[in-house]
UniProtKB/TrEMBL annotation:
Protein's organism: Flavobacterium cheonhonense
Keywords: Membrane, Transmembrane, Transmembrane helix
Transmembrane annotation, as ranges: 32-57, 63-84
Origin superkingdom: Bacteria
Protein name: Uncharacterized protein
Length: 109
């Protein structure tokens, strides 16, 4: 149930970012996919390392392991948010007036 709440707010932040840079608001799904993918990746990595090194982690009855996906998922979303913000910010070309429509960016600046 808690993850549904996270999904909503992650989707909302990524949608606001996309609309702010004139992209489709459906880019909000990137955030949810990265949240789930980051959690899945770290879970699989932890499981493989548990088998290799024989740590003996009880994955079924350990609340810390179960709730570890929250910070991992949020961290992966934050990293993607920063990457998309930087990428989309570099793509924005500001035109000062309507008279400059159709001119190349070299002529405008």
């Amino acid at each position: 149930m808690l993850s549904i709440l996270f999904f909503y707010f992650i989707w909302k932040k990524f949608s606001e970012l996309a609309v702010g840079y004139n992209k489709s608001k459906h880019n909000g799904w990137f955030g949810i996919l990265v949240y789930v993918g980051g959690s899945l990746f770290v879970g699989l990595l932890l499981g493989v390392l548990n088998e290799i090194f024989g740590w003996g982690i009880d994955f079924e009855n350990n609340a810390v392991i179960r709730f570890m996906d929250i910070p991992v998922g949020l961290l992966s979303c934050y990293i993607l948010y920063l990457i998309l913000d930087k990428k989309w910010k570099s793509e924005v070309v500001e035109i000062d007036s309507i008279d400059n429509i159709g001119n190349s960016t070299d002529e405008v600046n």
